[in-house]
Amino acid sequence: MADARYDRIRKIAAKYPERRSAMMPALRLAQDAHGGWLPAEALREVADALDLAPAEVEAVATFYDMFNLEPVGRHLVEVCTNLSCALAGAKQVVDALEIELGIPPGETSNDGEVTFRLIECAGGCGYAPVVVVDHLYREPTRPEDVPGLVEELRGR
Amino acid sequence: MAAELTVLTGAYDHDLTRLAEYRAVGGYRQLTRARKMKPPAVIEEISKASLRGRGGAGFPMGRKLGLVPPADKRQGPAYVVVNADESEPGAFKDREIIRRVPHRLLEGCLIAAHAIQAEAVFIYIRGEYLAEALVLEAAIDEARLAGLFGQVKVLLHRGAGAYICGEESALLESLEGNRGQPRPRPPFPPVAGLYMQPTLINNVQTVASVPAIIELGAERYAQLGVASAPGTVVYSLSGNVNRPGNYELPLGVTLRELVFEHGQGIADGRALKAIIPGGSSVPVFTPDQLDVQLDFDSVQAAGSYLGSAAVIVVDERACMVQLALRAEKFYVHESCGKCTPCREGTRWLVRLLEKIEAGDGTQADLDLVAEVCDRIEGKSLCALGDFAVWCVGSYLEKFRDEFQRHVDEGRCPYGGESSTEGVPAPSDQHTHTAMAQVPA
Amino acid sequence: MSSPELVNVVIDGRDVQVPKGTGMVETALAAGIEIPVFCYEPRLGSPIGACRMCLCEVDGMPKLQTACTMAAQDGLVLRTAQTSDKAAEGQDAVLEFILLNHPLDCPDCDKGGECPLQDLTFRWGPGNTRMRFPKRTFDKPIPISPLIGLDRERCILCYRCTRFSELVAEDGQLVAVNRGAQSVIATFEDEPYRAHFSGNVIEVCPVGALTSTTYRFRARPWEIQNVPTVCGLCPVGCNIWATTREGKLARILSRNHPEVDEGWLCDKGRFAYGHLRAEDRITAPLRRVRRRGFERVSWEEALDEAERGLRAAEGSVVVALSGGETVEQATALARLTQDGLGSRAAILPETSHPALDRFRAPLSAIRDADVCLVIGDDPVVERAPIVDLWLRQARRAGAEIITVHPAGSVPLEPGSAAWACAALTSADAPKELRPAVRSLKRAERVALVWSENDPTGGAYIAALAEKLGPKSSVYFLPRTPNGRGIAAAWGRADEPPADGEIGALIVSGDEVARDPGVRELAERARFVLAAVMFESEVTLWSHLVLPGTSYLERDGTTINLEGRPQRLRRAVTPPVDEELAFFAELAGRFGVEVDPWPGRLPDAHAPLPARTEADAPVKAPAARAPKRRRRGLEVVRYRGLFSGAAVARVPQLQFQRSLAEVELSAADALQRGIENGNLVRVSSNGTSRTLTARINRRLRAGVVRIENEHANGLEASVEVTHA
Ligand SMILES: Cc1cc2nc3c(=O)[nH]c(=O)nc-3n(C[C@H](O)[C@H](O)[C@H](O)COP(=O)(O)O)c2cc1C
Ligand code: SF4
Ligand code: FES
């Protein structure tokens, strides 16, 4: 299993002029393989496959928002609250989600189902407010759409 | 009038994500033509068209191409890198281009690669653009199978969430598998870029404009837009307008035309309060500046920047202090942390703005905001530091009395009724560091 | 290399001429102008322009520029904060930002008094910050290892320490994590920073964020004295400052010798000084009374006892030297034994081949080589650590590094070094060596490094160098700090008698005292005189024990692996006078005049003597390729750097000792179903040890690698199974 990942990472790395360039694809791979986040052993795996020290991998992983260094829920609900979305009422969407999910942004529901967090501009400003569910954009999402959305997640 | 499109041409009446349809509208013919031309001739054509970079700085692409040492004057390989990190608040044009005309982007890449005899093309797309990455990946596979790449390797590389990776040298660091932190320059990418090899790095839209130049020829292309900045631009219109969205128009249209004709004006007939012409990073305009033409030089002459041509419309319900605070929270969250003024200064600004917004600010705090802005501007390693003060600095300068009222009245004049009241930001929620305890 | 053209630059109105491309910080210094810097440190790779402290105004550029990232070009006109208000304003701004979250706890900071940030704040800085918000706080200081403490509040994120880790030592263990204002320096999962050179981050840190746990609060800079001397723990001989306070050693700092160490030290050299104050240190001469007991005796009594024992030996005398002695000590012993007692019998740590001096070069020349050939089974970093840093630097500069050992780029059988030296120039070189042969032929500058555990190897490597011609320089890594100097001082050595009784045995130093061969001689000796620092079984089988001294307590000369004579200086006084005085006086009693005063080389960085002329061609004994063992796995043993009497006595260094591990090739591991980290039993008929398996993808199949102390009792061929 881990060995299979080692080979996959080596294969990705072979596409680049320099092995280290496979860092982000490798981290994404490891994150998916470890339930959406990067425990220490995941970082060690990547380091091993790229012939780096684990610390060098941790340094990169902690730099980027999309790598999770803590466990996350089965679903990821992200709300953009940057200028355009803010002007279009993102705050109301955040409030609605907070009520429906029963947790403030930055937290994961107790049942481990949903992680709810705020993000910076997602590049959907023209279709604001933008909510991103499991990496797919819901544009626009209005407060009244929230209950249905949460129900849908709980259903899945 | 379709004739005036050069990037999204045909995108709305065909499914140009499919190779066959793109070819049906003449796709990849410009590549064939360009490949028949000698590399210097291609560079010459692009230079004559004086195509200016659409990523923000407006630097002429021809000049950049010219800085790359020709094949016979360099040891190692050269690379083309496409900046598809589009993360500037307000901008969503590259996304449109990738979704609608991925093959036009690829055609542009291959023409550029021919111009500098590049060995490989890397397209760095922001990690959040998953759907777009899939579209582009499919297009790449189709084109590869069709044998369009020839000797050139084309690789799609996904980012992982960091605004700074849009900055070209940080992007290269990130592509090399490091923390996305900018490099000191010189050397500039055309001389020493990816893996320290000569590298042409351009924005998605810039590259996607290249086929049109080969097709129309520099002269005809130069007749579009304005003399100082020919061609068309995809303007991203957002905020409090009736019809937000992407509009490809010639450079030089006025703000008024964009907002009131294409965008059909402010929602619910409210009054316009402020307008940001080039993404959250540039100085703000006031309603009396609606007649400014949207091209690099005109906007700059009016005291701001066209940047990524992302126009954000702000109506009367917004509190500029809250808007400034929210904007600054973005920069503190995105500062890479490498250089001192940006890392420390943005944090300081957020604290000051929070205080003022809460009604606890003093006169000294107001002056200090302006002062801290001065002390950051022009001293940071990359332009993010400047971006972080242009917004706040210009809000303070142009809406001074609104800031003043927060101090004098000890509260927000909107009394909680503003459209921007209590907007939370990622920097407020706990990030994935257990270590840095920043006291409230 | 042709000398680069000179260019004219104007700094603060002063004209300076420097070679094109000189950094502007250096250029300014050449004009007598200091530009303040924090992140800039040329030894850490190309400048990163992060701290922004060096902002200057440059003619023709609208924005302030960082001097540290600029190179001198003709006609460049630059104004520093001293003549440009804009630059001064910029610098002031940057300093204010740096101090925003800095605790300003100088009074109880180890760096206080020798802190660039403190100095700059006094010179330029704003007296008080205008930030009225609470500062960033962290738990402090947190240990990043038993040796180093990290205070994140003081850290100014100049990235010097992380660049050292990434770009100099290349251990990649100390990094910055998180982004922006959240960025902090950290190790992986807060595991200890365990690497041979970790201590250097303390010295590169421009503030008091990284401090030594062995030095914390020991001294204030104005109470201390810095003695220029040389490290005596390995054959590199790094130049050091020994900081003393009230006659006690407080710390070791580097004393940058650009040709030898470039200002880096290994952790053994930096931290092992604690052994000076070990409890089991012998502080007075001891004379055997009855079978097992000892009595403290005076210097005079000790001399009488020694004289009696040596006279009774009637010329049957053997001397065993450790390799840490000064040239003067070795000479005194040589005169005493050879001229006074008429014996040349000795156990020497090395035999140095004269031809080596024909190919000598400063260690810094490794950096300029285009091909470096490292030959021998001993890991260079364990034997002469700094050489490893030079090799890494060469690789970063584009040199090809060829390593010939079972885990090298040319993974030959263990013990192939001598044979490979010859094979590398023979017309019909075996297939695996041919690429190396080609590289060596093509190269314009070659660095040859001998790292085999075979003191007679000089002949082989010198012969190779001779064939390659003057383009090659040779670095023969002795096993001991002054092995070369001692071999030269002793001259021709006779073998000790193979059997029968011996009149007297003189054991010099703790190192050789632990040698089983010496132990065996002692059992045959009527009289054993040992000069050792610490109590050990040696004291039990000696008749007279002299208190030995440390390199930090001696004056004298030592010759490093390059063949560079360097001056040792006494930093602290030993419990009683040093061995030299004793043996000189003893020699006197046998009618031999020996100067009791060590030679006095200048304190300054010692130069390297010129290459000697060839007299006769080098004759290397024939060497055959080792034969592959049929059965079992062959053990390659090496001596870890963190071993020996001094290290054993410094508690904070214990975590650096080699782990109880066995390195396995991927193939052998797979075959035995062993995974990284598994506990395995390593056994050879009779003995067996339980060790942790470490899979080394570069290691040749059929070979395992184990550090000496963990290979104890194992034979040359072993089997490895799940424990
Ligand atoms: C903080 C920062 C963020 C940037 N983000 C982007 C971006 O998302 N996309 C982009 O094309 N250029 C971005 N840029 C500009 C790039 O550095 C670079 O100028 C541009 O990609 C060059 O391409 P062009 O000449 O085609 O515009 C950014 C610059 C800075 C300083
Ligand atoms: S300005 Fe900000 S983003 Fe740019 S290098 Fe400095 S810290 Fe990083
Ligand atoms: S010393 Fe120049 S930026 Fe730090």
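^ iron/sulfur cluster complex. The pocket of flavin mononucleotide (ligand 1) is lined by residues B 53-57, 59, 83, 85-88, 164, 166-168, 201-203, 206, 382-384, 387 (CB under 6 Å). The two ends of chain A are 27 Å apart (CA to CA).
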